[in-house]
Amino acid sequence: MEFRDLKKQYLALQPAIDQAIASTVASGRFIMGEAVQQLETQLSSYVGVRHGLTCASGTDALTLALKTWNIGPGDAVFVPDFTFFASAEAVAAEGATPIFVDVCADTFNISATSLAEAIDRVIKEGKLTPKAIVAVDLFGLPADYLTLRTIADKYGLLILEDAAQGFGGSIGNRRACSFGDIAITSFFPAKPLGCYGDGGALFTNNDGWAEKIKSLRQHGKGTNKYDNVRLGLNSRLDTLQAAILQIKLNAFNKELTQVQAIADQYNKLLSDIEGIHTPHIPDSFQSSWAQYTIRLSDAKQREKLQQYLFLQGIPTMIYYPKAMSQQTAFNLLAPIVKTTMAQRLTTEVLSLPFHPYLSQEEIQAITTAIRKALQ
Length: 375
Ligand SMILES: *Cc1c(COP(=O)(O)O)cnc(C)c1O
Hints:
By secondary structure, the chain is of the alpha/beta class. It contains 11 helices and 12 strands. Helix 1 runs antiparallel to helix 8, helix 3 packs across helix 7 and helix 9 crosses helix 11.
């Protein structure tokens, strides 16, 4: 059994993908070929945002957004303490200071209460200028953007939506990647919409920022490639990856229906097992189900369950074993607010095998094994 079976997905889409690869190779246009522009139009219309701009990875997309806003030394950027490293890494790499904020016990997303407390602290200390919030759609569930927008407006902050895992999620009739002033996603193979290598994209309704992103992703180009008006990056999505993503985007809504059905089934088969919390999806929210992550009552129980499943040939993952503030790379940063829940979650969460092509038999085997392990 695979944790995320990318080969099964390839087999389901093989003729179209093979053909997209072959025609890209035959075109000889490997950088910024036609498929890139086409995909960008398709992505922006899917999300419902004016500009969709691709780049080389989700991490680069975060970097490009921060550079677009001139965020750097002396600036405070608020980041949930429970996320993938890149959410905070990109901030620190620009010379700005990530301020780690606690997360909610039920959604695992950034806590509005903790965020407001952290912003007030930074203002009171007076050393850094609060600039932006990196709101992460963890495991596919959009953050609470309604509340976050109120806080952002109150303090004059920008929202950078890190939807690396969130593409395909929604709140009401609005899709993920439409909530941030700039939103980013990742096409890393294991993300909800993955390509066959690294890739990423940014979304914004702001024309000026979109122009700047286009410049920054191509060495800070001006009127042409050899007129450079600022320092940028070499960060483009390969034509080959764009062509593959066009095929995958066509199949994406069907896959979303499949993952929702699998999540419903997991929920049903696991909900009555004592000591397990199944994922909480608030009303009107829709997850893209980047991960199906359960929470156990303590570290010992998680260890026991993971070990048992491993012996049954069932792979599981711990996303994430360390909070940002516990990472060696950030050990010079004294936390401004307590991130108790983030740290507790690192000891209690466990992600189960999950992908659109998980079979009935596999779901049965996994949930039966979990029941046995915890009896
Ligand atoms: C994967 C991920 C990223 C980085 O995306 P890459 O394409 O791997 O660079 C950023 N933030 C979050 C929350 C992620 O899960």
